[in-house]
Design goal:
It is a single chain. By secondary structure, this protein is α/β, with parallel strands linked by helices. The chain has one domain (about 10-155): Nucleotidyltransferase, domain 5 (2-Layer Sandwich). Helices cover about 40% and strands about 25% of the residues. It has helices at about 50-70, 85-105, 115-120, 130-135, 145-155; strands spanning about 10-20, 20-30, 35-40, 70-75, 110-115, 135, 140. The strands form two sheets. A five-stranded mixed sheet has the order 3-2-1-4-5. The protein has a two-stranded antiparallel sheet with strand order 6-7. It is globular.
Length: about 160
Amino acid sequence: MSAHGPQSKHATAGLRVEPTAIHWAVVDGTIDRPVLVDAKTTSAPKGWDEPARLNWYRKELTRILNLYQPRRLAVRDAEAFGPKGRNKSLQDRARIEGVAIELAYSLGVEVQSGAMKTISARLGSKAGKKHIAEDDLRGLDWSEYDDKQREAIMSAASLLEQQ
């Protein structure tokens, strides 16, 4: 394991995708006391066509999963509501999510995906998006992160075990 890798064999990763970026997080600890290992946002180079962007995301996610070696990956699904005209955005996001799910599976990483309601339920909560507005998640200070990064952190924390 790398010097930047997780502190235990219990690390989990979370992913929140946008059509033009991925927000990812790796957490360790327990579901009651998550510990942030790392969290970042990254984007494919502008101007690339779709196959090149998807390939870039696959390589970047491979690097992240190999570096941190999480046991599980939680992908925060796109929710299919909102204004018309979002179809292209949802399709772009779904393609990147599909690349992430297939990649994790091929690397032997357990994958679970779900909407915010599913992620909240895994945390034993009905609060959902209310958690995102708070300054911390069960003692994990995430005040420096934006809402989408917090969703990635929360997704990863939802797959931690009780202890």
